Amino acid sequence: MCFVSLVLVFVVILSTEARADLYGFKNITNNLAGDAAIGEAQLFVDVTPYSGNQVLFTFSNAGSEASSICDVYFEDGSLLGIAEIFDAKYNESLYPGVRFSKGANPPDLPSGNTMQPPFNVTAGFLADSDPKVQPNGVNPGESLGILFNLIGGQTFTDVIAAINQGFTGPIVAGESLRIGIHVQGFDSGGSESFVLTPEPGSLLLGSIGLGMVIARCRKRKTLIES
Question: Is the pTM of this model over 0.85?
Answer without folding.
Answer: no
